């Protein structure tokens, strides 16, 4: 049996964690995703919006934006900072998104999937991201993987690892992640990028790619 993970909300709703995420700026590659103007009336979904760092850029690019996060502390911070006529907010899990089928032209899912507690949840989340994406739409995905496992991580079996603070992460081999992506009927647009990123504590192996729904 796995150890019981630390309560997810206790970490993500902690004021120090929220402050850390509030200080983050949008990733440089977001500008490339927004190089072309949004189609008229198009929706962008930020699935796991955190403190909302991506929301102004999405709205400025012409999208109607739905910002979704599971954790009320993060969601309230995002709403407090970025409320506007083009941005809506919802508390939801990435495995059950409050959008109709084929509604989002652009979906961001950054730093979310590895926080799910089971491989089956990752597969369910990828199917859900496929469901809400319009055919030909863009999914920007990044997640931690098992390509590099920092010594601070404690393996619990079934691709689950515990951090020193008790939080659990599901870290797949990149090839296994890509297999789940293909099963979800999502396709790579270009090549995936893998790199090491500093964590707290330890280093994380990041897998980043732009995907599309055929």
- State the separation between the terminal residues, measured CA to CA: 39 Å
Mean pLDDT: 94
What order do the SSEs take from the amino end to the carboxyl end, as H and E?
HHHEHEHEEHEEEEHEEE
Gross morphology is: globular
Estimated share of beta-strand residues: 25-35%
Number of strand elements:
11
Helix-residue proportion: 25-40%
Task: Enumerate the spans where pLDDT stays under 50 for 5 or more consecutive residues.
Answer: none
Biggest sheet overview: 8 strands, mixed
Radius of gyration: 16 Å
Q: Given the helix and strand composition, which structural class is it?
A: alpha/beta
Count of runs of 4 or more consecutive helical residues? 7
Key features?
three-stranded antiparallel sheet, 214 residues, alpha/beta, eight-stranded mixed sheet, 30% strand
Describe what this molecule looks like in 3D.
By secondary structure, the chain is of the alpha/beta class. Helix content is 27%, strand content 30%. The strands form 2 sheets. Strands 1, 2, 3, 4, 5, 9, 10 and 11 form an 8-stranded mixed β-sheet that branches. A 3-stranded antiparallel β-sheet has the order 6-7-8, with no helix packed on it. Helix 2 (15-22) crosses helix 5 (72-82). The longest helix is centred in the middle third of the chain and has 14 residues, at 119-132. The relative contact order is 0.15.
């Amino acid at each position: 049996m796995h150890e019981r993970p630390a309560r997810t909300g206790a970490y993500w709703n902690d004021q120090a964690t929220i402050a850390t995420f509030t200080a983050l700026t949008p990733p440089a590659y977001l500008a490339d995703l927004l190089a072309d103007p949004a189609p008229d009336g198009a929706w962008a979904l930020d699935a796991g919006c955190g403190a909302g760092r991506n929301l102004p850029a999405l709205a400025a690019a012409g999208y109607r934006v739905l910002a979704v996060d599971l954790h009320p502390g993060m969601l309230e911070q995002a709403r407090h900072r970025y409320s506007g006529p083009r941005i809506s907010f919802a508390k939801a899990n990435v495995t059950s998104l409050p959008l109709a089928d084929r509604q989002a032209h652009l979906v961001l899912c950054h730093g979310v999937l590895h926080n799910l507690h089971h491989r089956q949840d990752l597969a369910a989340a990828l199917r859900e991201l496929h469901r809400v994406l319009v055919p030909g739409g863009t999914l920007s995905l990044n997640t931690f993987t098992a390509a590099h496992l920092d010594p601070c991580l404690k393996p619990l079996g079934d691709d689950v690892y515990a951090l020193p603070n008790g939080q659990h992460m599901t870290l797949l081999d990149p090839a296994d992640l890509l297999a789940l992506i293909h099963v979800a009927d999502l396709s790579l647009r270009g090549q995936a990028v893998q790199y090491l990123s500093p964590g707290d504590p330890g280093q994380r192996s990041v897998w980043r790619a732009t995907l599309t729904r055929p």
